[in-house]
Design a protein that fits this description.
It holds the Pfam family Aminotran_5. By secondary structure, this protein is α/β, with parallel strands linked by helices. It is built from 12 helices and 11 strands. The protein has 2 domains: 109 residues, Aspartate Aminotransferase, domain 1 (Alpha-Beta Complex), CATH 3.90.1150; 238 residues, Aspartate Aminotransferase, domain 2. Helices cover 41% and strands 12% of the residues. The strands form 4 sheets. It has a 4-stranded mixed β-sheet with strand order 2-7-6-5, with helices on both faces. It binds glyoxylic acid.
């Protein structure tokens, strides 16, 4: 045999990556300090120095999540990896999962659970709809009652309630708005690296409390994924009490360097200051938008995320055209909605390093320019 396929032309040209203002829902711009950390020389994924870095990451996540959970790691993968890890490990085929769906992420969790054979129930609200604690509790009891009946176990509601695990997704909010994993009795919590943490996409912190560990380490079946099996990952992260960490998979070494640095920046700044700062800049952006006559999608200020702001598509404008205009003329990414919110909203994210009033001013100027120069259409 011989080489018949020549080297592709494109591979003989240098890599080109433009600068962009990443003012959408993520990834956000990565500060030089985190970029530099990711550019450090590679070491082996099983070297002792790497274990130290992973131990640091674990402590950084425990701080960011406000948890003392031993079973705290970073996934090799994006937020979706953490989402799948949570479901794959804690749910067995045929078990029930109840998902509060008010947009694409609830839909995704429901689909992931359904794919692995769970019995999925959903409670749905329109995009942006808020579930109160009372509603969640009420629906839990309702579903748990159904489940208990179908399993011929008359008085098991309490037991089921007791056995229920509470999973929370903070991909778009960690570091920008308060979360207290232990104090809020959250059993499983995860986030992504590329939003307010400002690391590149590709790693995802996740933590399981003791109740979640009891459930996932006493399963009858093996989790459907080998890569995301917490029995292996807990060893890789030195959480299982074993003297040796064995080879499971090769973690993203540079991604972990970057994640460590992003967690270090959060620790130096302090959670309270980071939350305060995001709220202040978001408030500034919201006022600027309202002064321009742009409507915010979530009416109640207290329920808005300070990290990603959803705005109602200005009447008569084509949102795709506006986004393209701002990309072309301002080098700036904002995005539309996703899933059920597509065509309803545009999203602006000012997270971590990007969370600055000067950036909010740039967003406002770009939007004003787009409103002036994009044609009004019926679409
Ligand atoms: C992706 O994470 C998004 O929110 O668009």
């Amino acid at each position: 045999s011989s080489v018949t396929i020549p080297p592709p032309e494109c591979m003989l040209r240098p890599l080109e990556v433009p600068f962009r203002y990443l003012f959408g829902p993520g990834p956000s711009n990565v500060p030089p300090r985190i970029l530099a950390a990711g550019g450090r020389a590679i070491i082996g994924h099983l070297h002792p120095e790497m274990y130290e870095i992973m131990n640091d990451i674990k402590k950084g996540i425990q701080y960011a999540f406000q948890t003392q959970n031993n079973m705290t790691i970073a996934m090799s993968g994006s937020g979706h990896a953490a989402m799948e890890c949570a479901i794959f490990n804690t749910v067995e085929p045929g078990e029930s999962v109840l998902v509060a769906v008010n947009g694409i992420w609830g839909e995704r969790v429901a689909e992931i659970a359904e794919r692995m054979g769970a019995n999925v129930h959903i409670m749905v609200k329109a995009p942006g709809g808020i579930f109160s604690n009372e509603e969640i509790e009420k629906v839990f009891v309702l579903y748990l009652h159904c489940i208990s009946l179908s399993s011929h176990n008359d008085d098991s509601s309490f037991k089921f309630k007791h056995n229920t695990l509470f999973l929370v997704d903070t991909v778009a909010s960690l570091g920008a708005s308060p979360i207290f994993m232990d104090q809020q009795n959250i059993d499983i919590l995860y986030t992504g690296s590329q939003k307010a943490l400002n690391a590149p996409p590709g790693t995802a912190p996740i933590s399981f409390n003791e109740r979640a560990c009891q459930k996932m380490f006493n399963r009858k079946t093996k989790p459907v994924s080998y890569l995301f099996d917490m029995a292996h990952l807990s060893n890789y992260w030195g959480n299982d009490g074993q003297p040796a960490r064995l080879y499971h998979h090769t973690g993203p070494v540079s991604g972990f360097f970057s994640l460590r640095e992003s967690l270090a920046i959060l620790a130096e700044k302090g959670l309270e200051e980071s939350w305060r700062h995001h709220r202040e800049v978001a408030g500034y952006l919201w006022k600027g938008l309202e002064d321009m006559g742009i409507k915010l999608f979530i009416q109640n200020k207290d329920l808005r995320l300070p990290s990603v702001t959803t705005i109602v598509i200005p009447e008569g404008y084509n949102w795709r055209e506006m986004l393209q205009y701002m990309m072309k003329h301002h080098n700036m990414e904002m995005t539309g909605g996703l899933g059920p919110s597509t065509g309803m909203v545009m999203r602006v994210g000012l997270m971590g390093y990007n969370c600055q009033k000067t950036n909010a001013d740039m967003v406002l100027a770009a939007l004003a320019d787009a409103l002036k120069n994009c044609k009004k259409s019926k679409a």
